[in-house]
């Protein structure tokens, strides 16, 4: 069982001992630290925080603990109830709130939950802010208000519909063109809040929806990370229903994957590629993804005359790079779409709407669209190390060994070869090195990964 504290919040497994797991006491401590952080950095007499949760079984418990902790600090709460990560991110600035908390462990299994923390813009906190909240939580010194100054909880249902309204207002979402195509789409929302918002979006776009695992009861029918090995049911159903494609989201709806009409994976890495291709065709500009994302985005960006930049891994880092380079779209290769015309956060809802508009503008199937993009294949591996090994020194040696290539040390070591790349990163929570490779064929990607893993073992002496 695990409790992980990071700049983006706190996540862990439900039950167990305080400090080792995400217990009620840990949830209260971290909510107290976040509320104290907001109060320490504001001159306002009254603060407001938006909260929402995914459909996890532990959601109501953690939700109530966090909400009541905030009102104990004198902070008003706008309670969205069952929601999505991007919906809370959209709600914070619309409600002119001072922050937001999303209660979700994203793609982690059902025994996990988490508190994801937002600033007044509805964006994730930066590293310094996250570190300060962790420090406040460890000090365990909070000052709660007296009975006359308690905060209030204001329920606001229907915010997922408000989120959809915001998406449908976008200039690049062509509602009428989508309706004319009369698409048929299968949706796998892993029995979480995506089972409400994705079908609702599709129905407003005139799409026939076939629901699979769309009951928001928190009982995930398969591993909720949207990877090929977890998605056999929807792949079969897309073919059986003769659907145009399938949509898969994770429990908090910030990761998006498509299933092509032939029942094959469109590829998580290519979600951003396809949506960016459409956006760039209408509004040329720059793009950003992280160092572990496919080179295909760079190719598409340059095709449209823009510049591509790679950030360190992590949504906060992608957003910072997007702002610095005036990128018009960006995200992560795990299916995360960040479209600043809505907000600076990964958003599957805007991703689906833009993808549908892209598809409606051409006479191609989803499989044909996927085949039209640069073909790259990835291999994702890891090596377990003993805690005594100096991982930083090992990575420095790798960088030195390949100094004649294009090497980035922004986040671990990334080596760009003419037709392939490898990205090596150490985990912040485990004694492992992650090895991501990409090449024009799966055999080449796997072969490059194997060679790098062997080289790492030689350097580490294992």
TrEMBL record:
Obligatory cofactor(s): Mg(2+)
Every Alpha-D-phosphohexomutase C-terminal domain range: 404-454
Cellular component per GO, a single term: cytosol
Tree of life domain: Bacteria
Keyword Hydrolase among record annotations: no
Enzyme Commission numbers on file: 5.4.2.10
Membership in a protein family: Belongs to the phosphohexose mutase family.
Protein name: Phosphoglucosamine mutase
Organism, as annotated: Myroides pelagicus
């Amino acid at each position: 069982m695990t409790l992980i504290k990071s700049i983006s919040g706190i996540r862990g497994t439900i039950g167990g001992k305080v400090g080792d797991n995400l217990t009620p006491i840990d949830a209260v401590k971290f909510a107290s630290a976040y509320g104290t952080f907001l109060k320490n950095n504001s001159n306002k007499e009254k603060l407001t925080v938006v909260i929402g949760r995914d459909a996890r079984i532990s959601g109501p418990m953690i939700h109530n603990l966090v909400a009541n902790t905030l009102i104990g600090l004198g902070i008003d709460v706008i309670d969205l109830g069952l929601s999505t990560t991007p919906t809370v991110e959209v709600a914070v600035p619309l409600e002119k709130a001072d922050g937001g908390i999303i209660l979700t462990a994203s793609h982690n299994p059902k025994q996990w939950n988490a508190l994801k923390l937002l600033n007044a813009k509805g964006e994730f906190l930066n590293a310094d802010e996250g570190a300060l909240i962790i420090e406040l939580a460890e000090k365990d010194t909070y000052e709660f208000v007296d009975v006359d100054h308690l905060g209030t909880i204001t329920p606001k249902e229907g915010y997922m519909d408000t989120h959809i309204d915001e998406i449908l207002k976008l200039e690049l979402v062509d509602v009428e063109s989508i309706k004319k195509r009369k698409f048929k789409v299968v949706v796998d929302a892993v029995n979480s809040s995506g089972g409400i918002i994705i079908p609702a979006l599709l129905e407003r776009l005139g799409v026939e929806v076939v629901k699979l695992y769309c009951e928001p009861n928190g009982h995930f029918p398969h591993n909720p990370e949207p990877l090929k090995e977890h998605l056999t049911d929807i792949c079969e159903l897309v073919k059986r229903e003769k659907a145009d494609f399938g949509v898969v989201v994770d429990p908090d709806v910030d990761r998006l994957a498509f299933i092509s009409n032939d029942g094959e994976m469109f590829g998580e890495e290519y979600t951003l590629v396809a949506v960016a291709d459409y956006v760039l065709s209408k509004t040329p500009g720059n793009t950003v993804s992280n160092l572990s994302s496919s080179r295909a985005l760079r190719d598409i960006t340059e095709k449209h005359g823009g510049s591509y930049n790679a950030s360190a891994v992590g949504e906060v880092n992608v957003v910072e790079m997007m702002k610095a380079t005036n990128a018009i779209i960006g995200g992560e290769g795990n299916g995360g779409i960040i479209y600043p015309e809505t907000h600076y956060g990964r958003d599957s809802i805007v991703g689906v709407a833009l993808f549908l508009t892209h598809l409606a503008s051409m006479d191609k199937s989803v499989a044909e669209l996927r085949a039209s993009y640069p073909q790259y294949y990835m291999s994702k591996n890891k090596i377990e190390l003993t805690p005594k090994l100096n991982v930083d020194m090992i990575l420095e040696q790798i960088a030195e060994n390949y100094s004649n290539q294009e090497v980035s040390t922004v986040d671990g070591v990334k080596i760009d070869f003419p037709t392939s790349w490898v990205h090596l990163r150490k985990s912040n929570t485990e004694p492992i090195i992650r090895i991501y490779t990409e090449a024009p064929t799966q055999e080449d990607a796997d072969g490059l990964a194997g060679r790098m893993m062997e080289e790492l073992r030689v350097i580490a002496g294992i």
